[in-house]
Design a protein that fits this description.
Elements: H1 4-17, E1 23-25, E2 28-38, E3 45-55, H2 61-68, H3 75-84, E4 90-95, E5 102-105, H4 106-115
Antiparallel strand pairs: 1-2, 2-3, 3-4, 4-5
Amino acid sequence: MVRLEVQKAVVEKALKENHAAFEDRDGEFQWTGTTRVKSKQSGRAYDVVVDISVQSTRRTKDQIAACLLKPDLRFEDLLIVSMIDSRIPGHVKISGLPGKDVEHDFMKFLKSVGAAK
């Protein structure tokens, strides 16, 4: 399994390379992006797909939309969303890395990469 710091770097790179905002599907915000990463150990290149989904409530929908519905999205915007609602449901799925695909709960992923600093 790929280390958590590497997973965070892959998500950051995908957000940076794919200048697309999240799609709002009636309160469910969805984003999918691709990137190409190269292993430092083996030198092999991998095509990686990152899929992020966040489910808002009526109360938080406008605040979350302000963070996620802009074209130049950053990883920090995801952290802001996690501060708006600390129990927000969602997932982060990373596929294409060596080993099996990785899927995290949105909040657990952001908390664990924040604690890894």
